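Input.
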Amino acid sequence: MLFPSQRRVTAPHHPNAVLLVLCLAAFMASLDVFIVNVAFEDIGRDFGGVRLADLSWILNAYTIVYAALLVPAGRIADRFGRKGTFLVGLGLFTAASAACAATDGVWWLVVFRVVQSVGAALLTPSSLGLVIASAPAHHRVRSVRIWAASGAFAAALGPVIGGLLVAASWRWVFVVNVPVGIAALVATALVVPRSRDEDAKPLPDVLGAGLLIVAVGALTLGLVQGSDWGWTDSRILTTWVVTLVALGGFLASSARHATPVIDPVLLRVRSFAWSNATALLFSVPFAAGLLANILWLQQVWHYSPIRTGFAVAVGPAMVPLFTVVAHRLAHRVPTGHLVAAGSLLYGLGGLYTSLVVTAEPHYATAMLPSLLIGGAGVGLALPTILSSATADLPPSQSATGSAIVNMSRQLGTALGVSVLVAILGNPTTYDVAHTVFQHAWWTFAVVAALAAAVAPAMTHRA
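Output.
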């Protein structure tokens, strides 16, 4: 991304129409991180009783590859053209969605989810770059905030939309992307201007991105399979070794490459470094808490997918409301304090459920209050993190910085789901299920408190 005087953009275009199209694509990419949550039970049943540990890869394979490729994809978009990269990513995402819907095995579904995540990684940073390039200077901050809020809202709304679609078939969770993706492709070709970085830069560190995928994938495998294989099993110990070796290789590659996945210079900016730490920590309980609530509703209270979707809908309904509240308070309350308050609220929501939930489905007293509290927390925290993290970076680094923050968020999602699967294991009685779910809610309340503790450090300079 360049300073305004250096940016090459074709004209004329209508900024609001461009913003609408780009937000729609970002919404789709974020939605697919969480939309499959309510479909797990139906997918497992359709494929012959697949275990939760295996089903979790439908979500984790997407988030791990998506996270690792976000920054390299952003650099590719800057070098070769943001509109072209966006169209390629959107087309790949749409085609992979159709393949996911047609697959006949859980591991083929995981493969096509990986392809889908490559498309999402290409379209997400290029869409942000196009938003910044096409927005008038006096509306640029507002446009970026709207773009960030669309992704956060999609993440919260995923289970609701998923529940409605799974009522017909879990395959509709993927089919729905096809007509929306085609419409977005046509609209992009018609209304979105071309934009690219005129300064030629080296190609991104693809090796570093691959090593990051291996490191996080091995860590995820160890966490997910630990309860089944045994925590001292040689296979689990091997995953820890692979994680450390791949992480060391990633750091070495980043240190010597001209355009690393994570530029060490950016991490010297205090607010940006702490924003990434906060994004990762907050995303761990956010992703895990959402899935834990859905699993409890479906597997313990025996809610149908559509009933589950409507049951959790009140949480997402709080997100846009408290996003507006956060925007209004941002002029008077430090950014980090807003995020800290949101993190604490989200943790308190899960803690409340852990203390009052029972085998009897008392939704109004056991689940509803926590969803309201947690949704308010998400609205205060997540859009604020995404829209404020790059405030102290120069304009030329804003798109890369946003991609890194989104990468941290997706890594937190993968870790959260993996830790949840490790804690839950395979409970066979209600007493065991109640105990392990309580442990999960307590664990993620602690992580949310850690996010609240580090969040004040992300407040940008006045």
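Residues 1-12 have pLDDT under 50 and may be disordered.
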